[in-house]
Amino acid sequence: MRGMWARVAVMLAALTASLAVPVAASAAPAVSWAPCIEEPLAGYQCSTYEVPLDHDLPRGATTTIALARRPAGDPARRIGTVFVNPGGPGGAGRGLVTSAAALLGPEVLARFDVVGFDPRGIGASDPIQCFATDAEAEALLDRMTGVPVTPEQIGETLRANYEYTEGCKRTAGPLLTHMSTLNVAKDLDLLRQAVGDAKLTFVGKSYGTLIGATYANLFPGSVRAIILDGSVDPAQRTGARLANKFARAGGFEIALRGFLTECDRAGLNCAFAGNARAKFERLRDRLRQGPVTSPSLGTVTLDDLVGFTGRMLYDVAAFAEAAQTLQFVHDEIFGDPMVLQVPGPKPLPQAPPVRGWLPDAYSYTSNDAFFAVNCADAPLPREPARYPGFAAAFEAVYPTFGRAEAFSEVGCANWPPVDERYAGPWNRRTAQPILVVNPTFDPATRYEFAVQMTRRLGNARLLTLDGFGHTSDHSVCVDAWYARYLLHGEVPPVGSRCAQDRPPFPAV
Questions:
Q1: 497-499 and 460-468 as β-strands: parallel, antiparallel, unpaired?
Q2: Measured by CB atoms within 10 angstroms of the end CB, which terminus of the chain is less buried, N or C?
């Protein structure tokens, strides 16, 4: 027996050694870190790194990647670097170092540097810019309707999207056609070498899961540990984007139905309870007929309702307050019809432009990058006139979110052709399994996408979070598996599920 335990000890030591990240001999120059000078990143380390604009021309023009680092808390026991990405596309990632404690937990932070990076063209990384000023971008954005219903709304939305893309062609420069996820994954491999890691440790959320899946299939031998949280279906997203948009609309509808069901189940703890689904549908169908004004709300549109509802489904902690807002709006709109003509304040919060971390004169880099990446990654029909038909078909199945999803990337219809894209294969086997995590009621990356991601990858394990919100949150169970996987390479047993510790509607 003593000999058996000795052999086990040797095996465990070998496994631990395989999960360490030795310093890599690399042709890539090392990153040079210095204290960050931007106030939101005060106390962290920052750097910039040059990568080829076109990876097929490694000695040609370059573009700059901006990074931020939180050093490991216990340098003597440091394993390596965890690269993190928040998604988007268009999301600036450097700021994730400031919330690393919530993302990774103390055990991981002690053993790893955490590096957030703004992917090419985003945030502080030579940001892409389709217009000279905010005013030029806003002039077109203001002409677009998120959920266009009338012929006038549809026509103006199509024209404004077309003009937006033409503005990108005129102004954005050569970076515009080098924004694909293929290039981001290649950038990431250079960054991995530049921090001295022989293999990549990466946590990608939402769109970041496509970065991780692409990397794993380009560089399967360079994977140490990859967590994909809130997964896309990589094959559908890159090979059948229109079908993927339809499926995304379904994900939002599933999450909405779950919200409304939990609301009724919560009773007095949910302000919108009492046949919540019927009330929501009545509200939506009324606004589909046209805007409504009231003393307290001002003008409320279908765009307001769909946008507000979609955003609140991202965060289970927002559910209770969102239910109060929906009940207030419902009462106002279906109250005394004699008072529905007097303007007033609007309670439905609007989403501001994403400004990243720099106080820049231009605020819409994130919006520009969203199109630049998605239009590069996924072919969509090139005829704008076909999109109203797609919207009608989507809406017939998914009445709340179908129309919005069908129109959300119509700007790709006249996007310049891009040859640099990766669309599979997705099944190259990595030495270490990839950990896929997904909530069952994730609106933007529906649970079925995670199932497909796990099936398509050559070596992956799915951890299910029974809960709400976009990507995993509010779960000690998920946090524990993050740590066990990143530190020791341990994956949960097949079929493992975690509970969400925060109920959708806590008792008052």
A1: parallel
A2: N
Give yes or no for a contact between 126 and 500, defined as CB atoms under 8 angstroms apart.
no
Over range 122-136, report the average pLDDT.
95
Q: How many angstroms separate the CA atoms of 431 and 447, rounded?
A: 25
DSSP track, 283-338? HHHHHHT--EEETTTEEE-HHHHHHHHHHHTT-GGGHHHHHHHHHHHHHHHTS-GG
* Count of Cβ atoms closer than 10 Å to residue 347 Cβ: 16
Name the pTM for this structure.
0.91
Distance CA 252, CA 491 (A): 29
Cis bond upstream, residue 384 (ω within 30): no
d(CA 222, CA 226): 11
Tokens read off for 169: 């062609």
Q: What secondary structure letter does DSSP report for 493?
A: P
Please tell me the distance from the alpha carbon of residue 202 to that of residue 216, in angstroms, as a whole number: 10
* Neighbour tally for 279: CB within 10 Å: 19
* DSSP, residue by residue, 261-287: HHHHHHGGGSTT-SSHHHHHHHHHHHH
Instruction: Name the 3-class secondary structure at 168.
Output: helix
Ranges of beta strands (E only) in 175-285 are 200-205, 223-229
Give domain limits for the chain.
Answer: 244-339
Phi, psi of 120 (to 5 degrees): -50, 135
Q: Specify burial of residue 389 (Cβ count, 10 A radius: 0-12, 13-18, 19+).
A: exposed
Token digits of residue 258:
């779950």
Helix ranges (H only) for 341-439 are 365-377, 387-397, 402-407
User: At 349, is the pLDDT very low, low, confident or very high (cuts 50, 70, 90)?
Assistant: low
Contact 286, 276 (CB under 8 A): no
